[in-house]
Amino acid sequence: MSQTQNSFHGLGIAPKILDILSKNRFTVPTPIQRQCIPFAIEQKDVIGIAQTGTGKTLAFGIPMIQCLAQNNGKGLVLVPTRELAIQVNQALQKITSDMNMKTAVLIGGEPMARQWKQVKLNPDIIVATPGRLIDHLNQRSVNFRKTRIMVLDEADRMLDMGFLPQIKTVFSHLPEQRQTMIFSATMPAEIVSVAARYMKLPVRIEVAPPGTAPTEVSQELFFVDSMDKTKLLLNILSETHGSVLVFTRTKFSAKKLTKQIRQAGVHSAIELHSNRSQRQRRDAMEGFRIGRYRVLVATDIAARGIDVTGIELVVNYDLPANGEDYVHR
Question: Which of 168, 169, 113, 165 is nearest to 141 (CA)?
Fold first, then answer.
């Protein structure tokens, strides 16, 4: 491999940001980072197709931060879920904190007043979920006159969740002269349509065929009667000592299954779904990440973009609605 492939050098990244990456022990770019960053730094529109967990945040974050630092202006990152917004913001702050740049997170489930205070601090980058961002637009607490870079992250998930009208509304408030980047694990027709309408000659970068499962993941299939699924799961949990992520199809199933797991003696189990408060959801994700909870029982809210390293086992207790959701899980 060449020096460029082995490191972030040679991708057009400014020396100060290279120093920050080194300090944070980011040494070898992932394929999506290596291919996207040079085009994005040149302020080209980019469509990046890569599986969840492949480093997409820095693929757009590094060029965004560099371009804003050099040319002023603002950046906007739109993501489908609260959890992903928090995670993206944390990743960006590893660089912005040393660049004298501010970020703000605008998500549902948190007081508007607290977010107004963030916005009044004139952040350089806003990370938001579509619904809450529209709330702020309606109350005129944000404007995008100076927005130079727009990113849609996990775009296919946002469309799955019915956010296309909100996405169109946001685009209608953006300046014509801007850079637009879309990142997605799959490339459905709706995203092609969005790209055609809102992007200028985008560079398409694909590091894995859409809808393919990671090759390094070992997969097993168990045929079992529905009434015996919980017993089988408990047996599997008893033989597993690391972190386990269990997916259910409904919020009711997640809550019920978490209770059954705890009653079976696995007290470090927690549920994650949209009926939980923002504080509870954040506690569940952070607790699972640091090992306070060994078992996380979740609906598909956690399937995309949530970066938790060291998970030993992922269990599809209920089959997902389609093959793409299986890949994201």
Answer: 113
What element of type H or E holds 296? Answer: strand 295-298
Sheet holding 269-272, edge to edge: 269-272, 295-298, 243-247, 311-316
Q: Locate the DSSP E strands across 192-255.
A: 203-206, 243-247
Which tokens in the block code for residue 44? 């080209």
**Exposed/middle/buried for residue 145 (C-beta within 10 Å: 0-12, 13-18, 19+):** exposed
Q: Pick the closest to residue 256 from 101, 246, 74 (CA basis).
A: 246
Confidence (pTM):
0.70
161-171: per-residue pLDDT in tens? 899 999 999 99
DSSP code at position 48: E
Q: Would you put residue 162 in left (φ > 0), alpha (ψ -120 to 50) or beta?
A: left
Buried b (16+ CB within 10 A) or exposed e, 195-210: beebbeebbebebbeb
Considering the chain, tell me which residue range(s) the CATH 3.40.50.300 domain(s) occupy.
Answer: 3-206, 226-328
Rounded-to-integer distance, Cα 39 and Cα 181, Å: 11
What is the spatial distance between Cα 259 and Cα 22, in angstroms, rounded to a whole number? 44
CATH number of 226-328: 3.40.50.300
The answer to whether the beta carbons of residues 72 and 88 sit under 8 Å apart is no
Structure tokens at 22: 């080194």
CATH 3.40.50.620 applies to domain 3-206:
no
pLDDT single digits (tens) 19-72: 999 999 999 999 999 999 999 999 999 999 987 778 899 999 999 999 999 888
First-to-last alpha carbon distance for the chain, in angstroms, is 32
- Angle, CA 251 vertex, CA 245 and CA 253 arms, to 5°: 70
Measured between alpha carbons, how far is 74 from 269 in angstroms, rounded to an integer? 41
List beta partners, residue 150. Answer: 76, 180
